[in-house]
Amino acid sequence: MTAPQKEITIIGGGIIGCSTAYFLTRHAFYSAATHRITLLEASSSNAGGGASGKAGGLLALWAFPQNIVPLSFKLHQELAKEHDGEKRWGYRRCWASQVDCKARVPPGLGAGYAQAGGVPTATAGAHAEPSKGLHKDHKMDSKALRKLGAPDDLDWLDTVHSLRGYDNMGTPDDTAQVHPELFTRSMAQLAEEAGVTIITGARVTSINKDTDGKSIRSVTYEKDGQEKTLPTTDCIVAAGPWTSRLLPQIPVTSSRAHSVVIKSPHPLSAYALFTAISLPAGFPTPTASKARGAAAAHAVPLKRGQSVEPEIYARPDGTAYACGPTDDTVPLPLTNAEVEVGEARCDDIIYQVSGISDELGRDGQVLAKQACYLPQGGPFIGEVGGVKGLVVAAGHTCWGIQNAPGTGKLVSELVLEGRTKSAKLGSCDPSRFM
């Protein structure tokens, strides 16, 4: 069966957009002769520079929403096998564990630190709230952790002095990981090799409909100061946190997330750690959730303990990715290139992981301090508002990397066949908001 002529425009070069481009070119109905696929990415860099490139990359059968998770987890494995994902984007099975730890004050920030920073005020740390990790919905209360010893190969965590509780959340049977930036760039490259045109530095300003408003006519974007219009029969909006600016009826929200990448002097065993870390008095004060800059807070040690929950993902390249809580102190900028990185929030993460691991603290090397905006509220996958050819694929929360292949496959079916076959959209269907 030959599909009719289609001019397909994908808005967004993150993992959802790149996976969609990839699966469109792998669909049985795809034909380079009858289909033109163009991916527009607002960033001037290659695809993968936004949240997709700064994510943790955890994959799990216990993720959500369950209507698409099994499909996507399976596709991850198949993609890795077909394209040598183990070498190309760091695919490997891993453990996911919850650990309850007590941090040590980082070296050099002991008694002298308190004097250098001045005497703590009576309120320093007194009203601090525990900071929650991105995957908090999957964690049990730290008091419910079984008091188990850590596995022998978890040798990059201070299990002797810091560990107070350990429990598995996932095993290599149901948990895996990828390097998200490498995975996103690989999907983009594979899509390009199959005929997709990727245009970077292209910020979409409008999605244009026919006069009756029932179908898509074109997409207008700005590049290098010039406005251009791209004829379009099918428009897929995969713009992550920027989606609602193009589709106000889709309630995608966003929050800023900070992370760091630390190089260890030794290989790191395959563990993703969901931590609950008790910071002792005297530890550098974490940046308040509502504080915009708050670098000065680090001059004041905690007067009393506080709990934090950074997440740490060991990678096969000898690095570890660690992320902290989200904040909403800086509004979503116009493009990813304008994302503001809070140095103090990155330092918080570094201090905290240093307090439970010499491999990532005293002996580690910080390679990156970064921030991105995490799309929230969904995922939303499906046709929008009864407009023929208008599809959304956005709002994937902290499980965007996990659910990207499944999303891409479902969108390819929707665009080229008119319906999804590999899984039911269920709660992902945006029609429930129309």
CATH class of the largest domain: Alpha Beta
Structural class: alpha+beta
Query: What is the number of beta strands?
Result: 20
Ends distance: 33 Å
Order of helices and strands: EHEEHHEEHEEHEEEEEHEEEEEHEEEH
What's the main sheet like? 8 strands, mixed
Counting H and I runs of at least 4 residues, what is the number of helices?
8
Question: Which whole number gives the mean pLDDT?
Answer: 88
Number of domains: 2
User: Which descriptor suits the 3D outline?
Assistant: globular
Fraction of residues in β-strands: 25-35%
- Radius of gyration, Cα only, in angstroms? 23 Å
Helix content: 10-25%
Named CATH architecture of the largest domain = 3-Layer(bba) Sandwich
CATH superfamily of the largest domain: FAD/NAD(P)-binding domain
Low-confidence stretches: 110-128, 138-145
Q: Kindly report the CATH topology of the largest domain.
A: FAD/NAD(P)-binding domain
Domain FAD dependent oxidoreductase: 8-414
GO biological process, one term: retrograde transport, endosome to Golgi
InterPro entries: FAD-dep_OxRdtase, FAD/NAD-bd_sf
Pfam family, one: DAO
How would you sum up this structure, described in words?
This protein is an alpha+beta fold and 434 residues long. It folds into two domains: 6-90 and 178-250 and 378-433, 3-Layer(bba) Sandwich (FAD/NAD(P)-binding domain); 93-175 and 253-375, D-Amino Acid Oxidase, Chain A, domain 2. The protein is built from eight helices and 20 strands. It has helices spanning 15-26, 69-83, 85-88, 111-116, 180-193, 243-246, 343-354, 400-417, and strands spanning 6-11, 35-41, 58-60, 92-93, 95-102, 163-170, 175-177, 197-200, 203-209, 216-223, 226-231, 234-237, 253-263, 271-279, 306-308, 311-314, 319-327, 365-376, 380-383, 390-394. The strands form four sheets. Strands 5, 6, 13, 14, 15, 16, 17 and 18 form an eight-stranded mixed beta sheet that branches. A six-stranded mixed beta sheet has the order 8-2-1-12-20-19, covered by helices on one side. Strands 3-7-4 form a three-stranded antiparallel beta sheet. Helix 1 (15-26) packs parallel to helix 5 (180-193) and helix 1 (15-26) packs across helix 8 (400-417). The radius of gyration is 23 Å and the shape is globular.
